[in-house]
Amino acid sequence: MEFRLTDAHLECLEKGDWQIVGGWIRVVARTRRNTRKHGFGALIQWRNMDSVLLQDIVFNRVLHGDQSRQVRDALIDSGYWLEPYPQSWSRLQRYLLQEILKAPSGICVDTTGWHDSVYVTQDWSVGTNAEPYYYAGQLNDSMLKCAGTLAQWQSQVGALCTGNPLMVFVVGVALSAPLLHPAAVENGIFHLVGPSSSGKTSLLELAASVYSDRSFVRSWISTANGLAAVAAEQHDMLLALDEIGLARPEDVDIAVYHIVAGTSKLRATESGALARPSHWRTLALSSGEVWLSEVFQSLGKRPKAGQQIRLVEIPVFGRFGTFDALHRFQCPQLFVDHLKLQTSRYHGSLFPEWMNLLTSTDELAHYAKSEIQRLVDQWRTSNMSSQVIRVLQRFALVATVLSLASRNYLVPWDEEESVDSVKQVWMQWLAARGHVMNSEEHQVLSRLKVLLPKWEKALQPLGHQNATSLLGYIRELDGERQWLIDKKQFLRQLDMPGQYMREVMPMLQRGWLATNEPERATLKLMIQGKSHRFFALWPERIYAGIQELELDD
Predict the structure, then answer these.
(1) Sorting pLDDT into bands at 50, 70 and 90, what band is 202?
(2) Across the beta sheet with 237-242, what order do the strands follow?
(3) Within 10 A of 535 (CB to CB), how many other CB atoms are there?
(4) Fewer beta carbons below 10 Å: N end or C end of the chain?
(5) Which residues are 120's β-sheet partners?
(6) Is the pLDDT of residue 224 over 80?
(7) Among candidates 357, 326, 348, 340, which has minimal Cα distance to 152?
(8) Is the pLDDT assigned to residue 302 strictly greater than 90?
(9) 541 - beta bridge partners?
(10) Is 302 left (phi over 0), alpha (psi -120 to 50) or beta?
């Protein structure tokens, strides 16, 4: 059967006459998975009755099989006009199958983000590869909406960021999400904490304007599974989440774990088989009036050190809530109203240009990693712990990204302001944390500072006649005092768990403990014919070490 496509219709030749089958529709590419062994189908485009151009990927297994009418129903539902005759669908079906054989080939993928050297979104892909890449995942309304030009975003939105470190920072977070993979940086969440009406939501909408309109900002008021689905849909993109305090604490607990872990929980299909889990890379920007520790406290839990590192809590700062410079406006509310108006008018133009730059940057991964390391080396201090350095790497990523954007004139502020803004936010986080130690180590040292003076008064000299102590003993070895604290008392008073090695390991590494049982970190002694286990402390070393760490902070 012969077909022809006019500007308005698809027609077929039947008994010498050209008859209309339906509206304008064509096959753009013959698609399959990158293995080239399955997932064969076609990327089709069509116009609906309102002349809106639509596209989707249709798989051969559906178009050929018993479920082919699902394709017909989806087309009709989208507004495609199909002539109301019994043979119209079979003719359109035949046309599509014929055109698939003629169409150029391409690769279809189920997720947005990086695929080899190509970056794919629902609407477009950019990067160099032998074949084009097309998105074949779940197609909802496009999440990437564009209004205005990049020049308009720069002059009407970006210009408002100058002099406002937090505004510059959140734009950097938005631009940093696609760099997680090339820079080998793990998933994370930046959580902005501050009072109501301080401008936190406006910051999220500003970050969202890099990609789309304010609908790009999601709410924490969702189930953990719902947030995981959003994270999967925005793979290698920013995830903006507003107002953590309105969500159920148990949902926040699970969602934080899933977002930073980058994988959904295991589920079974209707047949009982294991469903394929979703995976994602994302950098989230969150806001709220409450701290993560408060959310966990309501659950009767303490946040784990790993959660505190991956969810970086930043207290908002500025002369006017989250802002320092109001530009020509007389009060913060007028500035916020103007910012909201401008982001609603101009949005979504920066992200495509940014991805064009990234995909054309030679050795992007090497550049990002080396710049991050350079900033980490520049900003770190001598006693900074591994946990703090992991957070610093994420801040250094944002500074690296902003510097690259400034250098290529994608944002209307210079490189110096980019780096200085991120450093100011980093220093605020560090000041709120209050120390540069690992969380477990800081908890132990904080308790030790309180307990050491009490212990010194309660300890009995070892070896004195009839000397007994529930707490422990004191003795001198090679001219240095040593305290022997009963193991049970030590763990109870320091509020340590039964599996305590992680908590005491920093003390061992600093030489503050002596042990003859390395697997327990304890010292086993015979006293008055009985075996006892102690934690053997060197108090002078501990006092000196605490003072040194506090000076470094």
Answers:
(1) very high
(2) 217-219, 237-242, 282-288, 188-193, 311-315
(3) 25
(4) N
(5) 113, 125
(6) no
(7) 348
(8) no
(9) none
(10) beta
Beta bridge partners, 191, equal 286, 313
CA distance 245 to 55: 39
As a whole number, mean pLDDT of residues 185-204 equals 93
Do residues 115 and 131 make contact, with C-beta atoms less than 8 angstroms apart? no
- Taking the C-alpha atoms of residue 163 and residue 325, their distance in angstroms, rounded to an integer, is 6
pLDDT at res. 271: 46
DSSP 276: P
354-358, 401-405, 471-475: lowest mean pLDDT where? Answer: 471-475
- 3-class DSSP assignment, residue 42: strand
E runs forming strands in 17-121: 17-23, 25-32, 41-47, 53-59, 105-109, 113-115, 118-120
Once rounded to an integer, what is the mean pLDDT over residues 28-41? 89
3-state SS assignment for residue 209: coil
For the stretch 367-382, what's the b/e string if a residue is b when 16 or more beta carbons lie within 10 angstroms of its beta carbon? ebbebbeebbeebeee
The tally of CA atoms less than 13 A away on the side-chain side of residue 548 is: 11
Average pLDDT score over residue span 109-116 = 90
CA pair distance 333, 133, nearest whole angstrom: 45
Q: How far apart are CA 227 and CA 340, in angstroms?
A: 25
In order of start, what are the domains of the chain with their CATH numbers? 3-135 (no CATH), 150-433 (3.40.50), 439-552 (no CATH)
pLDDT band at 11 (very low <50, low <70, confident <90, very high): very high
Residue 274 pLDDT > 70, yes or no? no
CB 113 within 8 A of CB 187: no
pLDDT (tens digit per residue) in 73-88: 999 999 999 999 999 9
Residue position matching structure tokens 């809106």: 52
Over residues 466-517, the pLDDT tens digits come to 555 679 999 999 999 999 999 999 999 998 888 889 888 888 988 999 999 9
Decide which of 401 and 141 is more confident: 401
> Does the pLDDT at position 267 exceed 70?
no
| Alpha-helix runs per DSSP H in 42-149 | 60-64, 68-77, 88-102
Closest CA to 47 of 88, 18, 13, 7: 7
- Neighbour order of strands in the sheet with 9-14: 3-5, 9-14, 17-23
What value does the mean pLDDT take over residues 358-384? 93
Residue 415's nearest CA partner among 404, 426, 423, 425 is 404
Start-to-end C-alpha separation, the chain? 79
- What residues are paired with 323 via a beta bridge? 320
3-state class of 135 per DSSP? strand
Task: Characterize the bridge pairing of strands 530-537 and 523-527.
Answer: antiparallel
What does the alpha-carbon distance between residue 294 and residue 64 come to, in Å, rounded to a whole number? 56
CA–CA dist 438, 449 (Å, integer): 16
3-state helix, strand, coil in the chain (%, to 5): 45, 20, 35
**Token pair 């979504």 in the structure block, residue:** 348
Neighbouring CB atoms inside 10 A of 68's CB total: 17
φ/ψ region of 163 (left if φ > 0, alpha if ψ in -120 to 50, else beta) reads left
